């Protein structure tokens, strides 16, 4: 893996009796789309706010290209905060151009960049619309335009997909990929793990303010112990798999159709497992399969992903924010 461009090192933050960050450490490699995951309250927003100096740290250091992050570096970063920081009464074009000027661009460059990103985000024709007259999804697009307008080297987005329709999700995904391909380091949080699985090269999963797992998505899905999925015709309880331990296989779960999900040690003899299944009946399915990112998350945090998503949806409804559901 490439060496990290953004390093979060031993971050600690308490709010009264609540420990938001408890020694959080991980790195984000250059030019990747990197997913930042964790259950509600894990510390993701606090971390992102700390990168921008909006949340103070009790301890720890954030480094960009091996140097502690300061205001000069932050001017080269783009941020899409969870609370969305646009001026409701300002017109779209003025808003985007204003942020470009704030980041030090001269007037012609700011106007041209504002036009470029408004067009790229499918908002052309709405340049004179007030922010508060835009739909929720279009406000998200406007917020992304603001984060991108000064061509940042690091892009940090707090739940950028929440509330977007399928077209908005596709546009957001392709822009994040495109920016990463152009060398930008992209860090974003999301609870939509199937989406994260599709677009991220690597992820960090945090829980209670600490890192629990990080690495390339493909490696995490493969895991230390490969998974075999095996189904024997008519055996919906996968009774054939009883006693598999002798072959170094462990049945993790049995699906409704009788497919046994078997974790095996690398030294396990998959042929011995196949022989055992064939001895019990017709083998309808026998294949190595990667785990889903949802399962990796569930195992890492000890939480049901369904529960995490439900909690997030409830929290979003309470705050009046719509949660985007991908399926
Ligand atoms: N300003 C604050 N004052 C008091 N407590 C706070 C503050 N900000 C965050 N916390 C607490 O710190 C913990 C981490 O919160 P944070 O918002 O960083 O989590 P998160 O991972 O972004 O959660 P979510 O997925 O729900 O957005 C939570 O327990 C939260 O209540």
UniProtKB/TrEMBL annotation:
<dbReference type="InterPro" id="IPR003439">
    <property type="entry name" value="ABC_transporter-like_ATP-bd"/>
</dbReference>
<feature type="domain" description="ABC transporter">
    <location>
        <begin position="6"/>
        <end position="233"/>
    </location>
</feature>
<dbReference type="Pfam" id="PF00005">
    <property type="entry name" value="ABC_tran"/>
</dbReference>
<dbReference type="GO" id="GO:0016887">
    <property type="term" value="F:ATP hydrolysis activity"/>
</dbReference>
<dbReference type="InterPro" id="IPR017871">
    <property type="entry name" value="ABC_transporter-like_CS"/>
</dbReference>
<keyword id="KW-0067">ATP-binding</keyword>
<keyword id="KW-0813">Transport</keyword>
<protein>
    <submittedName>
        <fullName>ATP-binding cassette domain-containing protein</fullName>
    </submittedName>
</protein>
<dbReference type="Pfam" id="PF13732">
    <property type="entry name" value="DrrA1-3_C"/>
</dbReference>
<dbReference type="InterPro" id="IPR025302">
    <property type="entry name" value="DrrA1/2-like_C"/>
</dbReference>
<keyword id="KW-0547">Nucleotide-binding</keyword>
<dbReference type="InterPro" id="IPR027417">
    <property type="entry name" value="P-loop_NTPase"/>
</dbReference>
<dbReference type="InterPro" id="IPR003593">
    <property type="entry name" value="AAA+_ATPase"/>
</dbReference>
<comment type="similarity">
    <text>Belongs to the ABC transporter superfamily.</text>
</comment>
<dbReference type="GO" id="GO:0005524">
    <property type="term" value="F:ATP binding"/>
</dbReference>
């Amino acid at each position: 893996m490439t060496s990290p461009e953004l390093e979060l090192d031993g971050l600690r933050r308490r709010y009264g009796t609540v420990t938001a960050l408890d020694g959080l450490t991980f790195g984000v490699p250059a030019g990747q789309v990197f997913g930042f995951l964790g259950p509600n309250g894990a510390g993701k927003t606090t971390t992102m706010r700390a990168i921008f100096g909006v949340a103070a740290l009790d301890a720890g250091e954030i480094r960009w290209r091996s140097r502690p992050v300061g205001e000069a570096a932050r001017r080269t970063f783009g941020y899409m905060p969870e609370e969305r920081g646009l001026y409701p009464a300002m017109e779209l074009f003025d808003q985007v151009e204003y942020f470009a000027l704030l980041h030090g661009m001269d007037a012609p460059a700011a106007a041209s960049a504002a036009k470029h990103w408004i067009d790229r985000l499918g908002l052309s024709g709405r340049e004179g619309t007030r922010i508060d007259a835009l739909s929720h999804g279009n406000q998200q697009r406007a917020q992304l335009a603001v984060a991108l307008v000064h061509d940042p080297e690091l892009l940090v987005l707090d739940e950028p997909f929440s509330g977007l329709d399928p077209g908005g999700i596709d546009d957001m995904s392709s822009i994040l990929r495109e920016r990463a391909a152009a060398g930008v380091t992209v860090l974003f949080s999301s609870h939509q793990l199937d989406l994260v699985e599709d677009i991220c090269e690597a992820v960090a999963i945090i829980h209670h303010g600490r890192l629990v797992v990080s690495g390339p998505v493909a490696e995490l899905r493969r895991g230390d112990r490969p998974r075999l999925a095996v189904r024997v015709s008519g055996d919906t309880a996968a009774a054939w798999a009883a006693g598999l331990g002798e072959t170094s296989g462990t049945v993790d779960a049995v699906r409704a159709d009788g497919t046994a999900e078997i974790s095996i040690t690398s030294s396990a003899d998959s042929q011995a497992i196949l022989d055992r299944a064939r001895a019990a009946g017709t083998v309808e399915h026998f294949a190595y399969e990667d785990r889903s990112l949802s399962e990796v998350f569930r195992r890492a945090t000890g939480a049901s992903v369904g529960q995490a998503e439900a909690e997030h949806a409830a929290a979003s409804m309470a705050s009046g924010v719509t949660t985007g559901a991908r399926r």
